[in-house]
Specification:
Elements (H helix, E strand, L loop, with lengths): L1 H38 L55 E15 L3 E11 L2 E10 L5 E11 L4 E19 L4 E5 L15 E23 L2 E23 L5 E26 L4 E24 L6 E28 L2 E14 L19 E13 L1
Antiparallel strand pairs: 1-4, 1-13, 2-3, 2-6, 4-5, 5-7, 7-8, 8-9, 9-10, 10-11, 11-12, 12-13
């Protein structure tokens, strides 16, 4: 019994010694490991990845294109010919524009008579008088135009415009021996029926020129371009009329005529819009203008009659202050193309103008209380220019 117990005690002491050595070894290893960790730097936060760029990097604009302060950029060049890249989407950089062209239009009046005839016929049933009115036949005429302007980076600019119209017209008749004639002013050219073979002629001329000097503001965005303008217009109008009658022997029996002119100055405003159509460089445009001219008109008229040994001569002249409103409309198509920083354009359209109260060549007064004729123009226009 004592030998067995002693053996069990020895076994217990041996197990405790083994456990003590294991725990001591584990404690020493943990201490060494902690000492090593203490000498290592603590890891920092994980760096964030660099931000990705949402779009393509910024690029410098092509030469000749100005970026507006609002941040608008030039429209991209589209394969196929969309020419929006010629202009920034918003704003319009410092740019010159130079060009010219022609109007092809005809004048129109409320009335524009050359002379009046009166024929008397006799029959068993009585006498019949027939009155005839001969008017001038106004035709299409070519009228030159020109323009030059400059626009700064902010869209504000200045522009000069000019156009001129001139027309000479005539009408005539050979009398049959039963006809008497009066000119457009109401003066009797032949007192009674003129001899057969008497010739009557009348002529009229019109000269008009207009000069516009105006400030402009240009706004371009995408395919749209709008130009507003305000300034001053100076205009000259001169109209003249003459009538003559010659007997069959070639002797003058009547000479008469009238002439009046107007020089006026006043404000003018205009608005024009352009809409480009991609792919082919074509577009449409329209413009409107209104002006009021204040000025003075000078007039003169008179006639002389030498028929039937009864010479008569009458003449008078005068001047007066006049106010003439003017309205203009134009619309059509245009074509543009770009080469480097240059933009070429051409336009073809229809145009209409009205000059109120200007009278006509045969009216002796300008803008009188007798409701003088209005002068109108209708026709087409073709112009071309370059911006750079």
């Amino acid at each position: 019994m004592n030998g067995l117990k002693l053996s069990n005690v020895e076994k217990g002491i041996s197990m405790k010694a083994t456990l003590t050595r294991f725990l001591g070894t584990l404690a020493i290893g943990w201490g060494l490991t902690a000492a090593v960790w203490a000498q290592q730097p603590l890891p920092g936060p994980t760096p964030l990845p660099p931000p990705t760029q949402a779009g393509p990097p910024d690029q410098a604009p092509p030469p000749g294109i100005t970026i507006s302060p609002g941040g608008c950029t030039p429209a991209p060049i589209v394969s196929g010919g969309c020419l929006d890249s010629c202009l920034p989407q918003c704003g319009f950089g410092g740019t010159w524009v130079v060009g010219g062209g022609v109007y092809y239009m005809a004048p129109f009046y409320n009335n524009n008579r050359a002379f009046t005839t009166s024929s008397t016929t006799f029959a068993a049933t009585g006498t019949a008088t027939t009155t005839g009115l001969t008017n001038f036949n106004n035709k299409l005429q070519i009228a030159p135009l020109a323009f030059v302007g400059y626009s700064w980076d902010n869209g504000v600019g200045i522009r000069f415009r000019w156009f001129q119209f001139r027309e000479d017209n005539s009408a005539g008749a050979t009398l049959d021996g039963t006809t008497s004639v009066s000119d457009a002013l109401g003066n009797v050219m032949t007192p009674g029926p003129a001899a057969k073979g008497t010739t009557v002629t009348a002529s009229a001329h019109l000269y008009l020129s207009a000069y516009d000097l105006e400030a402009t503001y240009t706004y371009a965005c995408g395919k749209w371009l709008v130009i507003g303008a305000a300034g001053a217009r100076y205009a000259q109008i001169n109209q003249g009329y003459s009538a003559n009658a010659t007997d069959p022997a070639g002797v003058a029996i009547f000479n008469g005529g009238s002439n009046h002119n107007f020089n006026g100055f006043g404000p003018t405003v205009a608005l024009e819009g352009h809409r480009q159509i991609c792919d082919l460089g074509f577009g449409v445009y329209a413009s409107a203008r209104a002006s009021i001219l204040f000025g003075s008109g000078h007039l003169s008229n008179g006639f002389s009659v030498t028929a039937l040994d009864d010479p008569t001569s009458v003449s008078n002249a005068g001047s007066q202050v006049s106010v003439i409103p003017v309205g203009e409309l134009e619309m059509g198509g245009e074509w543009t193309t770009c080469w480097r920083r240059f933009r070429f354009f051409a336009q073809v359209g229809v145009v209409g103008q009205i000059w109120w109260g200007t009278g006509n060549a045969s009216e002796p007064t300008i803008n009188s209380s007798g409701s003088p004729s209005n002068l109108g123009f209708i026709g087409g226009v073709a112009r071309a220019g370059i911006t750079f």
